Every structure is written in structure tokens, then in C-alpha cells.
Amino acid sequence: MAKKEKLRKELGLFDVFSISTGAMFSSGFFLLPGLASQFTGPSVFVGYLIAGLLILPAMFSMAEISTALPRSGGAYFFLDRSLGPLIGTIGGLGTYLALVFKTAFAIVGIGAYAAFFWDVPVKTIAIAATFAFMGLNLVGAKKTSRLQNFFVVFLLIVLGTFVVEGLYRIFFTEGINMPGANNHFEPFFTNGFEGIITTAGFVFVSYLGLTKIASVAEEIKNPERNIPMGMLLSLVVTGSVYVLGVFIMVSLIDPSAFANDLAPAATAAEHLFGWLPGETGTYLMIGAAMAAFASTGNAGLLSSSRYPFAMGRDKLLPRVFSTVGKSGAPVTSILLTTGLVITFILVFSEEGIAKLASTFNLIIFMLINFAVIVFRKSNIESYDPGFKSPLYPWVQWAGILISFILIIYMGWMSILFSGIIILLSILWFNYYAKGKVRREGAIFHWFALLGKNQHVELENEFMTILKEKGLRHGDPFDATIIKAKVIVADKQMNFDGLVDHVSGMLAKKLQVDKDMLVTEFNTQGTIDSTLVTPEISVQYARSEEVTEPTLHIVLAKQGILKPVGKGEIKSEDLIKIFFFLVNPAKEFRLQLRMLSRLMDIVERDDFVTNILKQNNEREIKEYLLHNERFITVKLLRNTVQSEMIRKQLKDIKLPAEVLVALVERDGRSFAPHGYTTMMENDVLTIIGEPKSIKQMFDLYMGAKESTEEK
């Protein structure tokens, strides 16, 4: 992937929580509760609870695929790589338009609530807000998320106060109508089971923003942790505020007025915040509503703009949409999205937009749940999610059924709208994109198990994504490098002789069959094309008898010719660096992550030249480690580190999560144990978590630099 088509990883856990939460709070809390009560009466808050539970299958499926394939484009990318580019085009264009519709609707909400304060045209305020969000998006996702964080924090403070004050007044003070003591809650279910299900379907749109974080997955740091955790926290917080907040509204507002109230939160605030001067409480809730609509609009513009970017990168849209500006933002895609939002604000009425968009989202949820089944059944080894959906595949089938039922409750107009989007997407694919795309989805790998063809390039792409994700916490890459054996190859050795020699050494060390290793090292796999780097060869094997990864590194300064070929085409490559990695057979995805990290290292500029310049085994291993995960300390007199001299390793106080992995003494390197006594001029290689390594750097290197300055 070209650098100009890469997005920066700038978003952390709170950013994920903020974008996801901000995309949910708007009409769901400030507009829909009263309207939804028409279907089921005072039990409307139960409808919100059920809707929150119904979103779980889609959330689990989206979180699984997002941690396996953290790529910009969200649902589009997932559907394209699972079900093929035709379904990807339908999912991408449809979800993009649905998101733009919802974004326009949310931004119009800003103008509508602004009218409470000033006598201004609603759409003028909405268009001005759109341009403001565009400007923020153009300077990068991190700056956009900072505004988003502000909106969400302010919103949660106000709504948290509303919920706490409301529950206290209802249950612990007199003068407020108690549930069950008045007609506010009688009858509880006005239309029985059908009414509560209809309500759940109606307010289901309140939770649709939860999964939109997947569209910016490529820009999230540590996606395997931050995506599922951020989504779950967002659902718990938002769901709690919805259920408790709507319960308070039902308790405080007269039922006949509640059903027709388009601003029930503001009405309830009048009852609760009477202790504030004047109409401060009402204005505070109106301000929260504006922040909610703004956060939804801002998050919507951020996430929706990634769809044309991802589709342009895959040639389903013109390539110009995949370019990234100096700020790291997809400029052309943001400009297109802004133009569409403004067009929808000017052309369409506010009524019904969200419902039309939500129907298509339910169709996407059906496909996303099915995509998880496809990825699992395809047996693509490099599909390696950091989070796996619980209760697979029952959760996915339940999600498909739930979406189908809710679509029926959306009505024929919404279904017709979705049908038109699908038809237009098919026409676009057939008449524009089909000739430009040469790939198929993971479903072809599933078909391969039934004797059909599969798309091999998909495995390679997933390996590339695996490399970009990096190691998972706990993966023993650093320990494997430290324990690796470094071998200098004999000048006269050929490739077959080298494989036989290294296999013999590994077989003796690991107590496994040598011939098995030779066969494994010489067998070509589907990921071999991703392991190709000039002058470097990576051989890998798996064994049932091996319990941890083991690596041998071979340096051949003069080079060894390695036979390569495809079909009848044969040639030889001159290789100077060989890596032989053996992994436990049951940990094949660990092997892929180890190989991916290794390739990330060997693709450094001038890797071969630099590693061959290293003077000894310690320097070679240090060159292969994460720079931020190790430090080298030499024990010299009259320095801070001199306190370690003549102490056993177990008695030396070191920061948490660090390990003295290697000691070089008199030109020889060895792995120390707790009773190893440190000596003057020892060189220690210390590995650990980045924060702890930084502490050591500040302690030892910082002290050294200060001494030199003096």
C-alpha cells in the first residue's frame, strides 16, 4: 500500500468510546422516547433495554472482524473481503449513503435546537456546522476526536446529573409521582408483546452508531484491545442512560403529553432542575441535546468519509478518493461527504430520513453476521481476530434473524429505499468497477473446501494486515530472539546442505524428527509470497512436539544460492540472511504473528548491510528487537549502574515488567539466572514493556548524559 494511502494510528481507547458513544446519542434520547411510547405506553424504557440487547450480535461480529482486519471502510471492507467485491460495493455504497443521511439528520438537529435560543433558519445553522466539522476532519482524526471527546464528556456530565437527580427525586423524596402509585405506569404494556417488540424496533436506530467505529479501525492504536473494549463500554454507558433516562421521563411527564412531546428530555429537566435559577435547567438540557446532535454529526462525517477512501483504494471508486493529505486525512473523500451532507440538508425534509437509513443498516448487520461465519469456515490462517465472538455461530444466526424481523417492522417504504440502493450499487459495480477488480472474497476459500477455486491473494493481504497490527500482548517474540542461535554459514555450503545442517541442530535441541523439519522447511505455503525480501529467506516449520517458538539465524556474508520457482519457471536467489523458525503446531496463528513481526523488521532500510555489520551475537539480537522494548546497559565504575556490580541478579531492584535477557562478558553472551553475579564491564541487554524501558533509559542513559554535560 502506498504511503499516501495510509492513515495514521492516532486513536486510543477513550477515542473509540467517544466516537461510538457520540454516534448514538441524539434523536434516541432527545426525540424518540415520547414517540416510541405510542406503541407500548409506559413500558417504553423496557423497549430501549431490549433494543440494546438486540444489537449485541452485530456488535460481537463487528468487533471480531475489526480486530482481525483493522482497515478503513468498516462494513464495506469486511463484506468485500468475505463475500466478494459485488457485495462489498453494495455494502459500501449503501452504508455510506445511509451514514450520510443520518449525519445530515443529526446536523439538522443542531439547527433545530439552536432555534430555542436564537431566531435563525434551521438549515443555515446546520450547513454552518457541517463546514465546521469538515474543517476539523481535514486536519486529522486526532483533532476531530478531541472535539468529539469534549462533546461526549459534556453530554455525559449533564445526562449523568439528570439520571442521578431523577432517581433520587423519584425514590427518595416526596412530591414526585411514584411508579405504580399513579396512572403513569398503568397499564404498563398498552399493546402487549407486539407493542414492546414494535417499540424495540422503532428505537433500535438509537444504537446503530455503536458499530460505526469499525470504519476508522485502521486509525486505532492497539485495535485488538481498544475496539471491543471501547464498544462494550459505550454500549453499557449509553444503554444505561437510555433506560434510566427514559424511565425518569415516563415518571415525570403526563402520559398524554409524553406521547406527543418532541423534546421530552427538556420537559423532564423542567421538573428536576427547578432548584436552578430561571430556566437554566431547560437550557442546560437543550445545550446537551445540541452537543449530542453535534457529536453524532461529527462522528458521522468522520466515519462515513472513510468509505469512499477505502473503496477508492480498492478501485471500486475513482482512485482520487484514496489519497491522504499532509495531515493524514482523506481530503477528497471528506470533501465529497461534506457536499452530500449539505445536499441532503437542502433537498430532503427531516422526517423519515433516519428510518430509511436504519433499514439498510439492518441489512448490513445481517451480512456482517454471515461474514463472521464465512471467515471462520474459510480456514484462512491469517484471519486472526484478537477478539472472538462468544457462542459462535448461534449469536450470528440470532443476529441475522433479529435483523430480518426488525426490517419487517420498518415498513415497505424503507425496504423499497434499500432495494433502490442495492440496484444502483449493482449497476455501478457492473458498469464501472467489475473490469478493474481482480479479487474474490473469503467465501471462495470456503468453496475451496468443497472442491472450488479460492483467491490466494486474500491470504497474502491478510498477512499484510497481520504485520501492520503487530504482535499480540504476551507473544514471545523478544524472548525467541534472545534465545535464538546465531550461526555463521560455511562458505562452501549449498542451500540443501544448510537446511539439513540447521534441521539437525534443531532436531537435537527440540527432540523432534529431523526429516520432518527438512520437509517442513522446504514446503511452500500460501503465505510464502509475503515473506519475500531480497537477500533474505524465512523458512518456517510446525511440530506437535514443540512447546515454544525456536529460532536459528544464519549469516552468510558471501551468500548462498537458494532455488526458487513457480510452475516450470526456475531460478536461484542469492541469500545472505536465513531465519529458521519452528513453532508449536497448535499455535499456527502465533507463528503467523511471529513471521509478520520478523518481516516488519527485515524490511527496514539497509537491513542486510546493517545486520552483517554487527560485531557479535548480542548486537545482532539487539538489532532485531523492538527499539522501544530494550536497552543496553554497561556496568562501569563511578556511574549510576555501578551499584549492580558484584550483586546477584535476584538482588538488583529493577522496574516492573523488565528482564535482563542477555549478559555479554569477555566477548561471550549468555542468558543469566537469578544467582548470576554481575561483574564490572558486563553489558546487559534488558527487555520489557516500553514504559519500564523508558524508566531505565531515564535512570541510566539520562544520568550518563548529565554527567557528560558537566
UniProtKB/TrEMBL annotation:
It is found in: Cell membrane. Residues 618-702 form the RCK C-terminal domain. InterPro entries: AA/rel_permease1 (IPR002293), APC_superfamily (IPR050367), PTrfase/Anion_transptr (IPR016152), PTS_EIIA_type-2_dom (IPR002178), RCK_C (IPR006037), RCK_C_sf (IPR036721). Its main location: membrane. The chain crosses the membrane at residues 12-32, 44-65, 86-114, 120-139, 151-172, 192-210, 231-253, 323-347, 353-375, 415-433. GO terms for molecular function: monoatomic cation transmembrane transporter activity. It holds the Pfam family PTS_EIIA_2. One of its GO terms (cellular component) is plasma membrane. Residues 479-627 form the PTS EIIA type-2 domain. Keywords: Cell membrane, Membrane, Transmembrane, Transmembrane helix. It is a multi-pass membrane protein. It comes from the Bacteria. The keyword Transmembrane applies. The keyword Cell membrane applies. GO terms for biological process: potassium ion transport. PANTHER family: AMINO ACID TRANSPORTER-RELATED (PTHR42770), MEMBRANE PROTEIN (PTHR42770:SF7). This is Amino acid transporter. It comes from Sunxiuqinia elliptica. The lineage of its organism: Bacteria, Pseudomonadati, Bacteroidota, Bacteroidia, Marinilabiliales.
